[in-house]
Amino acid sequence: MIKKILFFVLVFSVLDSYSQERRVITTAVPFLLISSDARASGIGEQGVATSVDNFSQHWNPSKYVFSNNKSGIAFSYTPYLSKLVNDIFLANVSYYNNINERSSWSASLKYFSLGDIDILQNPLDIPIIENPNEFTLDASYSLKLSENFAMGVSGRFLMSDVKLQTLDSETEAANSVAVDIFGYYQSEKNSYRNYDGILRLGFNISNIGPKMKYSKANGGTESYIPTNMRFGSGFEFIFDSNNSLAVTLEVNKLLVPSPSEEVFNSNGDLVAYRQPDVGFLQGIFKSFGDAPDGFSEELKELTYSLGLEYSFNESFFLRSGYFSEHELKGSRKFITIGTGFNTARDLNIDLSYLISTSDVISPLENTLRLSLGFNF
To answer: Residue 276: exposed, middle, or buried by beta-carbon count in 10 A (0-12, 13-18, 19+)?
Structure first.
């Protein structure tokens, strides 16, 4: 019963087009915004401007052309709502291959399971088990435009099968397609007075694509996919041949219309705000200036993350980070910690842990996350 209640809460958050007092921006397939690896999770849920790793496909695939390895594969498993259930999770597998010194291709599969749902018409019935789930499959191509700067493009297929066909025959699985555009800059190692340093910059405009339609009734219920813009910068302080410290900052904004249309009850009282029903391209441009309280609210729609990563001999890592979102827009605030190990056989093992600092508890609170990578 608990899982059933949780499921309907999740579906409601995805499909419902109303946002109440906090005016939180809602989208379909929100799992695409969850960090898919423990390294990024350990430094505040960011990765658009960090150094290259096997999970760069999720954050910024143009980093792959700066890798010293020919190719690599990575796996991750993230329990979700682990305090309440044990079969809701996000799984991810990524692969990259450097074609030559200037170009690479990469791909990944993400699968989000909402667990088994037992459907009972009455207490004496044999339950009908349904397993709502969502997944995406994407592929990318990246090219170095100079010695220090690369760009690329991704194509993605999205499928969201969160229907309970037993209860509602008018609801169906939703599909969409999307593209990403991204870039990455990494400087040469420059010498300063007491240390060397590398500057990194990155951006990724992801999930540019049509809305997803879930219902067949009344022309269909459509939801925006999480079109998203990330900008990041980082600087790695290299103190000697064994010790370095990378500091990174990332800013993120959903390119989805704000809940700005007023909804009144029969007494004429304002009870909610609703997202406008416009095309996805119009919605992207509209998202920069449609907040009801103007520019001050637009700034509140930005999220920020700060990350620290200490490296010893590029084989042992300690990480920490902080993520912040405004109270009106979701109120996600948390501290992250993590560690990592690179073995002599090119096996990478990363662990991370999240601690909420907000009244809104994260579904990943007190969850140990693990990811594995292997380079060839």
So the answer is: middle
Question: Which residues lie closer than 8 Å to 269 by C-beta, 6 or more apart?
Answer: none
Residue type, 292: P
Domain total of the chain: 1
Both tokens of 39, joined, read 């390294």
Between β-strands 212-213 and 222-223, what pairing exists: parallel, antiparallel or unpaired?
A: antiparallel
CATH, residue 332: 2.40.160.40
- Report whether 14 contacts 211 (CB < 8 A): no
Q: Where are the beta strands (DSSP E) in 227-367?
A: 228-238, 243-254, 261-264, 270-274, 303-312, 316-325, 333-342, 347-356
Residue in the block written with tokens 């999970």:
55
Spatial CB neighbours of 99, under 8 Å, sequence gap ≥ 6: 105
Quote the tokens at residue 268.
């004429």
Q: How does pLDDT run across 7-56, given as a tens digit for each residue?
A: 444 444 433 433 445 678 889 899 999 988 999 999 999 999 999 999 99
Q: What's the rounded Cα separation, in Å, for the pair 149 and 143?
A: 9
Q: Compute φ and ψ for 219, nearest 5 degrees.
A: 85, -10
Using the CB atoms, write b or e for 311-346: b if 16+ within 10 Å: beeeeebebbbbbbbbebbbebbbebbbbbebeeee
For residue 110, what are its two tokens? 């993400």
Q: How far apart are CA 70 and CA 278, in angstroms?
A: 44
Which residues, other chains included, contact 328 with Cβ-Cβ below 8 Å and sequence gap of 6+? 22, 23, 24, 297, 300
* Kind of pairing between the strands at 333-342 and 228-238: unpaired
Is residue 134 predicted with pLDDT exceeding 70?
yes
pLDDT value of residue 179: 97
> How many Cα atoms sit within 13 Å of 369 on the Cβ side?
33
**Is-contact 231 250, C-beta < 8 A?**
yes
Please write the tens of the pLDDT for every residue from 201-239. 999 999 999 999 876 655 566 889 999 999 999 999 999
Residue 165 structural domain? 2-375
Strand-pair partners of 95: 73, 107
